[in-house]
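Entries read sequence, tokenised fold; example below:

***
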Amino acid sequence: MLDEALDVVAFPESLVGRADFGVIVRGDSMSGLGIREGDILLVRRQDTAEDGEIVIARVNGGEYVVKRLRRPPGKPPYLESANPKYQPIAADKVEDLRIIGRVVGMLRTRFTNN
């Protein structure tokens, strides 16, 4: 599991297929992709991902984030929000950046008007 307690939800394999665990979204950094606070992201545990994939990452040993991984040729990788009010997180500008898993699906637990 993850290193510290989070809102983690277990699902039957018949429901989630390739996912190892679920994480409840907190915040709005991925709202531009339709990922909203309260959504449950289905995550496959892995320590690497391809350019453009949505990942769960641990930054500086403690903060967990949901971002799009970017791997520009010849440059350090970085994590990108889907909300312009948040700056990218560059791997060479933080002490520690680790991919925890790749988002493979999403469940929405409620409907909203916005």
Summary: The longest helix spans residues 13-16. The CA atoms of residues 17 and 104 lie 9 Å apart.
